[in-house]
Amino acid sequence: MALLDDIHDPRDVKRLGRGALPQLADELRAEVVRACSMAGGHLASSLGAVELTVALHYLFDSSRDRIVWDVGHQTYGHKILTGRRDRIATIRKDGGLAGFTSTHESEHDALTVGHASTSLAASLGMALSRDARGDDYDIVAVIGDGALTGGMALAALNQIGHVKPRMTIILNDNEMSISENVGALTHYLGTVQVQRWFQQAEKGSKEALSGVWEPLADIGSRAKKAARRFLDPASNNPFHAMGVRYVGPIDGHNIAQLLYYLEHIKRLDGPTMLHIVTRKGKGYEVAENDPITWHGASTFDPEHPVAKGKAYSWSNAFGDAASAMADADDRVWVITPAMREGSGLVDYSRRHGDRFIDVGIAEDVAVTVGAGLALRHEKPIVAIYSSFLQRGFDQVVHDVSLENLDVIFAIDRAGLVGGDGATHQGIYDMSYLRAIPNLAIGMPRNTQEMRAMLKAAFALGGPRAIRWPRGAVEPAEEVPFDAWPELTWGSWEVLKEGSEVTLLALGPTLGYALDVAGDDPRVGVVNARFVKPIDGDLLRVLARSQRALVTVEDHTVMGGLGSAVAEALTEFGASLPLRRLGVPDVTVPHGTPSKQHESLGYGPGGIRAALRSLGIEPATGPSDASVEGSDAAIGGGRAGGRSAVANAPK
Ligand SMILES: Cc1ncc(C[n+]2csc(CCOP(=O)(O)OP(=O)(O)O)c2C)c(N)n1
Asked: Within the chain, how many helices (H) and strands (E) appear?
């Protein structure tokens, strides 16, 4: 790595001659591949942004100027050039570099991010401050065509065009979100690319135009002018119309072109969008050919790259269940905000394409489209990740719950998620959903129970949230919807009777509870699978029969199962001790979930410690974890392996 070895800081990039930059880009690309092969990560997006990364660091000073990467998943090259090369293979691992940009990690990262579509609003805020203080640094937002589908990005653009601060917006258009990008704007960007080719062809050779201009030859000159205007990207351009100067599209892999345009734009007043066209996965054959699979890679052999097969997951179980539901009822719809693959819906989308809609990275829209469908008596399922549903909170309250509509929220990635880290932790949904009237919440412990919950939700109607974690689950035999098991919504399940203390757990923490309880006759275990409503009858019985209760959840303790139980016990006037184990009031970074559960105090060690604090010496297991146990986990800092599944990004 002749050049890269001498790059310790972005200033070293500026010292290179322009002619050396393509070689630097090649070396950077190889280093990104090497890092992802060892650590897994967002390979295809980072490869597509290599030339842009080099050009930006050549022209701008990222310690002073603000380069605001949207999502932050395309920044492995940026991290390598900004002094983090020696740690790049730790990305997304315990104590390692974050998978996205983080202001806590480097002065060169302008934004702590992970969710899409925030770059433009954040850049506007920065520009307002800069101009109010009379500072003169540059602000460059880099946003993908996928992230641009988010309402937040479009609303920010609307403001930027109005306020007109000096800033550069780079639209990195590769026609892909995680899957193929969707929406009218995407079609528009496609036509702009064609227009550009057309213009070049018009300048270059008349022959190239034959067959294209000929149909226009006979029409009058006014019509021809109008047609030309239509074909001119700058005239009827929506960004231009919104007050943002538009330049492009240009080849985003051509460093000379990037430098040429960026240098000019840098000197302009007001906001300018540079539309660059790139290829996701550029320069690495497998990723170029299959950018969907290689959007988020598990570890691989860089010489013989083969994507690792993934175990049957909760997402697959949901996708199969959704297909069975759609087979049984032609009013079933599934809505995804740009997460077809991650939510297990590839097969569903093929089988039931007429009742599948990808709304782009627009979670708010996904929820309210669900509301609209339900208002017309369809049966929508909004398939969404726990942390992304945060974007649709008001829509759940305002559009779904106030009308008590029959919308099922299929919430994936509930709990700690591994390598994606703090921005993606699915640990708040029970808190924010439990407060919403009409909304019921459940969490199954296996595929059969997921089906039973979906079936019950379907039969009962009203807004119902069913949540499940990231990762593998045992598949269940395929049976038609009618043959799925029945379940009473709101009922808990006693998995093991105990004479003194009962552990109330749900989802993955049930496994910990069962392990710790073992065959100790004093310790019971209940599958507290519904947090709204909870099983009040069973809880009353337990409050009378048990000496103490312990709740265990992979969720923040504030507002989750522990809170629901505490509230109910207070209402009953019960005074038995209650220990609530879960995520304390802290931010949880990327890491191995099982280790984090333990260090946050709700893994097996934490449960044992809780029992011990209640006077029960558990039969087996280590005794080092504390009940609170939160501080040890924060900031990670521990080295160690992780499973490829836990570290593969979404
Ligand atoms: C709010 C939100 N929803 C969904 C995601 C998941 N996600 C991560 S990257 C991505 C695609 C982004 O596409 P684009 O901006 O075009 O970047 P590319 O990967 O194509 O370079 C999606 C949907 C997210 N990070 N944030």
From this structure: 26, 17
Give the nearest ligand 1 atom to 70 CA: 15
Under a CB-based contact definition with an 8 Å cutoff, are residues 458 and 408 in contact? yes
Q: In what order do the strands lie in the sheet with 332-336?
A: 356-358, 332-336, 379-385, 408-412, 464-467, 440-442, 530-532
| 550-588 confidence digits (pLDDT tens) | 999 999 999 999 999 999 999 999 999 999 999 999 999
CA of 43 to the centre of ligand 1 (A): 13
Atom of ligand 1 nearest to the CA of 181: 16
Q: Are 628 and 585 in contact (CB under 8 A)?
A: no
Residue with tokens 């993934």: 310
- On whether the CB atoms of residues 466 and 410 are closer than 8 A, the answer is yes
Measured CA to CA, the distance from residue 411 to residue 390 in angstroms comes to 11
Distance (Å, whole) CA 37 – CA 69: 23
Burial class of residue 193 in the structure, from the number of CB atoms within 10 Å of its CB (0-12 exposed, 13-18 middle, 19+ buried): middle
Active centre residues (catalytic) = 280, 363, 391
Helix H or strand E segment including 89: none
The neighbour count for residue 230, using CB atoms within 10 Å, is: 12
In tens, the pLDDT along 77-106 reads 999 999 999 999 999 999 999 999 999 999
Distance from the alpha carbon of residue 342 to the mean position of ligand 1, in angstroms: 11
Task: Give the length of the chain.
Answer: 650
- Write down the pLDDT at residue 249: 93
What tokens appear for 472 in the block?
A: 């593998």
Q: Residue 554: which of 597, 592, 497 has the closest Cα?
A: 597
Global pTM value: 0.91
- Three-state SS at 169: strand
Query: Distance (Å, rounded) from C-alpha 424 to C-alpha 42?
Result: 15
CA trace torsion 615, 616, 620, 624 (10° rounding): -30
Q: Which helix (H) or strand (E) holds 582?
A: strand 578-583
How many Å apart are CA 383 and CA 380, to the nearest integer? 9
Other CB atoms closer than 10 Å to residue 342's CB: what's the count? 22
